[in-house]
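User: tokens in, sequence out, please.
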């Protein structure tokens, strides 16, 4: 079958989604093993299987360079996609940077789209999605569809899982933000070194030459050590003295922050609806990326007061007597930043309700417990998607280094009890789930929302 015929067919590389007469790309077969789902694939009668070696199927095309071949076909099949595509990666902050970038454009009535944890966004519309970085073909179909709607600017969250599993094959980005790098996903990557190598895929394989990389000095140093050099890319370091755009200072008041911005030696004062240094940093990165993408600084400054907080990221709910914060923080670094932000902003003691996911990085559990023990006043440890693990084992891991705590496995009761025991001199932080509206026990996904429970009890 020639190239022109192949690109006219439906392509697939997930055996669970394969349909009859589609062309299947067999990425799991290699020199040592055959795809473990090979029998199931054959039963579905694909029109063609593209594999790196011969298979016991008469309609097999052998390509040693299967991923390069797939990338080539994708770019042939999906020629008409937006030209200005940007990426954001990092342990924390991807969703915030992507969403702020999207908001800055939409508020200026400039067609824009974003793809990530909260879904596919385009022109004030949303399509829900389960993965931070979706299936490769789902991304390309979306890009082709929004191009038809005359949307030429897109930002995509690039997760380490998505990069490692080839979900961004065939895409080239005009620029990228690298927010930060700290412990997470070690259940999958096994080591911090392996985790970082997955991040490097974005910079080594998915960036146009001469495109911009926005990050801090420490990350730039790590990238340069891995041959991501200034000769190939334009490093925009937020900590560099001569950068054209700087946040001179920020001052918090209630649920707002006053920003003092220096752009080309001219000072601008702007009040925004966000709190916390890390949120300011995420906004700053999205502003720099927006300027690189062609958005005028004056237009950006004009709409900054209209930027809305992202659901599940430092969301404040309160009545006359109590202040509750809901945040997605699910890493030691993320949790510490949120707690310190609340302490500095409200100058109150912090109570906390949190847990850790089952079948996920177990090493971070005790680290998160240490953070809570060091910074929090009253601590309730609860369930947060236990999945196939025994919730009692998870909470035991978390509480190893906590001196004083309560365990309430039922998250609904944990939130109710924590709200009841939070007084005027304290703030309650409910961490870990943020925007999520479910709990996972074994193979069951049950509706649950931290927001709903807080509203009931306020």
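Assistant: Sequence out:
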């Amino acid at each position: 079958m020639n190239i022109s015929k192949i690109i006219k067919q439906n392509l697939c590389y997930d055996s669970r989604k394969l349909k009859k007469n589609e062309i299947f790309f067999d990425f799991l077969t290699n020199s040592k093993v055959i795809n473990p789902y090979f029998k199931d694939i054959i039963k579905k009668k694909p029109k063609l299987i593209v594999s790196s070696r011969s298979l016991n199927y008469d309609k097999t095309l052998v390509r040693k360079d299967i991923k390069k071949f797939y990338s080539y076909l994708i770019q042939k099949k999906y020629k008409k996609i937006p030209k200005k595509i940007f990426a954001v990666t990092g342990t924390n902050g991807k969703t915030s940077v992507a969403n702020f970038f999207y908001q800055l454009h939409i508020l200026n009535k400039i067609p824009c789209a974003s793809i990530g944890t909260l879904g596919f966004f385009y022109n004030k519309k949303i399509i829900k999605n389960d993965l931070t970085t979706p299936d490769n073909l789902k991304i390309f179909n979306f890009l082709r569809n929004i191009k038809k709607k005359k949307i030429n600017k897109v930002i995509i969250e690039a997760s380490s899982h998505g990069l490692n599993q080839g979900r961004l094959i065939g895409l080239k980005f005009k620029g990228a933000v690298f927010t930060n790098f700290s412990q997470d996903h070690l259940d999958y990557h096994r080591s911090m070194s392996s985790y970082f190598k997955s991040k490097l895929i974005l910079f080594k394989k998915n960036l146009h030459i001469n495109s911009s990389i926005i990050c801090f000095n420490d990350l730039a140093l790590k990238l340069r050590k891995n041959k991501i050099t200034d000769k190939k890319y334009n490093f925009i370091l937020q900590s560099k003295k001569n950068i054209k755009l700087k946040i001179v200072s920020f001052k918090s008041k209630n649920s707002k922050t006053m920003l003092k911005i220096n752009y080309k030696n001219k000072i601008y004062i702007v009040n925004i609806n966000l709190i916390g240094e890390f949120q300011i940093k995420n906004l700053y990165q999205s502003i720099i990326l927006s300027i690189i993408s062609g958005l005028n600084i004056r237009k950006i400054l004009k709409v900054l007061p209209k930027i809305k907080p992202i659901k599940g990221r430092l969301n404040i709910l309160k009545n006359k007597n109590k202040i509750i914060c809901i945040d997605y923080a699910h890493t030691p670094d993320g949790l510490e930043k949120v707690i310190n932000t609340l302490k500095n902003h409200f100058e109150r003691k912090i109570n906390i309700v949190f847990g850790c996911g089952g079948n996920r990085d177990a090493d971070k559990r005790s680290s998160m417990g240490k953070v809570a023990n060091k910074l929090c006043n009253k601590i309730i440890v609860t369930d947060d998607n236990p999945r196939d693990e025994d919730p009692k084992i998870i909470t035991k891991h978390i509480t190893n280094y906590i001196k004083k705590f309560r365990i309430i496995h039922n998250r609904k009761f944990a939130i109710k009890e924590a709200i009841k025991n939070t007084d005027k001199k304290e703030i309650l932080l409910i961490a870990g789930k943020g925007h999520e509206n479910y709990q996972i026990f074994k193979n069951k996904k049950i509706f649950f929302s931290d927001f709903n429970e807080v509203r009931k009890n306020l």
